[in-house]
Amino acid sequence: MNELIPLMVIVPMMAALLLSAFSKYDKLIKALAFVVALCLPLIPLLSNYGLHYFGGYEPIVDNITNIVYHPAITYSFDFLQQIFIGAVGILTFLVVFIYLTKYKKVSGPYLFLLFMGTAAVTALMLTDDIFHMFVFFEILALAQVGIVAASSIDYSYEMALKYMILGSIGSPMMLLGIGFLLAMTGTVNVTDIVAIVHGGLLNVASPVFLAALGLIFFGWLYASGLPPFHTIKSGIYSKAEPHGAALLQSFTVISMISIVMIMFRIFSSLPIFEVLIVLFSVLAMILGVSLALMQTDFRRMIGFLAVGELGFIGLGIGLGTQFALTAGLFQALNEIVITALLFIGFGAIVNATNEVDTRKLGGLLAYHPKVGIMLLIGGLAMAGVPPLSGFQSKLMLVQASLSCGYPELSILAIMVSIATFVVFVKTFYVMFLRPKPHDLEVVDKEVPKAMVFAMAVLLIIILALGIFPDIVTSGISNYVGGMLL
């Protein structure tokens, strides 16, 4: 067993507890937070691929059925987990770095929430246990509520409370669905459940099995922010601090793909499963960009665009082929990076103007050209403009839709990308290019260097993935191919 695998969860979790316990010692928690955040992207890079069985309990073979049972909670670490946990680790470091440099006195409880959320999504990516998944799904939801409530933005408490109330509906439904699976299979290990389902030992047409799909699917919609939860998901982004929103959207993407990949392994034999995924993904694409067009608050605009981009991810997964799944997962990686850049960049604008209404902004390119140019590139990447990373993943999704015999989905994906381009170009023009309103006061100070550094790092990743997509797509394709066998 690889002992580094559980450290990916244990390190940020222990750091969260220590930061909260020693929150009175400002210098100590600053140093601890920085060092741990710096280590987070390194652990997955240094770890070997493999499995980790907690408690050392190895799998057991049933001599009658030849089915392998996994009595222990199992973590599985492969290329897919490596790139996504690494991406979240990089983003956590950048967010913590921005936070530590922004405030003279930092909050231990707030850092606790950032690191605990990172630990939760890491566990979601690694776990092969569906109940273990639910436990960290709940921890993640509470961390997200706390990050929003801890912000200094007006009505953040109200938005956090709304999200928590909806979670009190979605989470029990998911748990009930997991309970149904446990009742039918006698196990919560995903690999064991898959073996039972594909081995013909369970009637997939059973009403209980279909009910389990419906309940878990509803919980997944809440976690991912797809309709009908798209409004509340964009809302929590707009009510969090900009650096917090950058991390929150990565939590959403990771929870979305980790849960849906588990569902795909269990329920893919049901034709209705892929239909549901595509249906709600298409709704997210249309509603996301349509609502973004109507926003004057650029934080809500980015929030709705982020929801629309989730639809592209779901589209690839719903099509279900190896190439489509690869495209969807590549799109997920791109969204984490691109949307983080946009949230941080627009956060710099808020820092300089104390204004979020695009109708009251203008002429900012003269004051902050670096931020403006990086935001422009990030927006073009989200819209799918070549040679940026968003173009590569969206091109793959268009090709996947065509190869699956759904040209209408390809046309829709292109139209939504064009609409995203229009939304962003319009917003960029009114904020940066048109004459500055006379009543707009731009704070005469530089954008925090930590923000510029974070945006530059994310921009380099966007350019690298756009020019050399095979860096990740070949590994993702191999992983997906192995899963589909």
UniProtKB/TrEMBL annotation:
<feature type="transmembrane region" description="Helical">
    <location>
        <begin position="6"/>
        <end position="25"/>
    </location>
</feature>
<dbReference type="InterPro" id="IPR001750">
    <property type="entry name" value="ND/Mrp_TM"/>
</dbReference>
<feature type="transmembrane region" description="Helical">
    <location>
        <begin position="79"/>
        <end position="100"/>
    </location>
</feature>
<feature type="transmembrane region" description="Helical">
    <location>
        <begin position="163"/>
        <end position="184"/>
    </location>
</feature>
<feature type="transmembrane region" description="Helical">
    <location>
        <begin position="204"/>
        <end position="223"/>
    </location>
</feature>
<keyword id="KW-1133">Transmembrane helix</keyword>
<feature type="transmembrane region" description="Helical">
    <location>
        <begin position="131"/>
        <end position="151"/>
    </location>
</feature>
<feature type="transmembrane region" description="Helical">
    <location>
        <begin position="450"/>
        <end position="468"/>
    </location>
</feature>
<feature type="transmembrane region" description="Helical">
    <location>
        <begin position="409"/>
        <end position="429"/>
    </location>
</feature>
<dbReference type="Pfam" id="PF00361">
    <property type="entry name" value="Proton_antipo_M"/>
</dbReference>
<feature type="domain" description="NADH:quinone oxidoreductase/Mrp antiporter transmembrane">
    <location>
        <begin position="128"/>
        <end position="414"/>
    </location>
</feature>
<feature type="transmembrane region" description="Helical">
    <location>
        <begin position="371"/>
        <end position="389"/>
    </location>
</feature>
<feature type="transmembrane region" description="Helical">
    <location>
        <begin position="32"/>
        <end position="51"/>
    </location>
</feature>
<keyword id="KW-0472">Membrane</keyword>
<dbReference type="InterPro" id="IPR050586">
    <property type="entry name" value="CPA3_Na-H_Antiporter_D"/>
</dbReference>
<keyword id="KW-1003">Cell membrane</keyword>
<feature type="transmembrane region" description="Helical">
    <location>
        <begin position="272"/>
        <end position="294"/>
    </location>
</feature>
<feature type="transmembrane region" description="Helical">
    <location>
        <begin position="244"/>
        <end position="266"/>
    </location>
</feature>
<feature type="transmembrane region" description="Helical">
    <location>
        <begin position="329"/>
        <end position="350"/>
    </location>
</feature>
<feature type="transmembrane region" description="Helical">
    <location>
        <begin position="107"/>
        <end position="125"/>
    </location>
</feature>
<keyword id="KW-0812">Transmembrane</keyword>
<feature type="transmembrane region" description="Helical">
    <location>
        <begin position="301"/>
        <end position="323"/>
    </location>
</feature>
<protein>
    <submittedName>
        <fullName>Energy-converting hydrogenase B subunit F</fullName>
    </submittedName>
</protein>
<dbReference type="GO" id="GO:0005886">
    <property type="term" value="C:plasma membrane"/>
</dbReference>
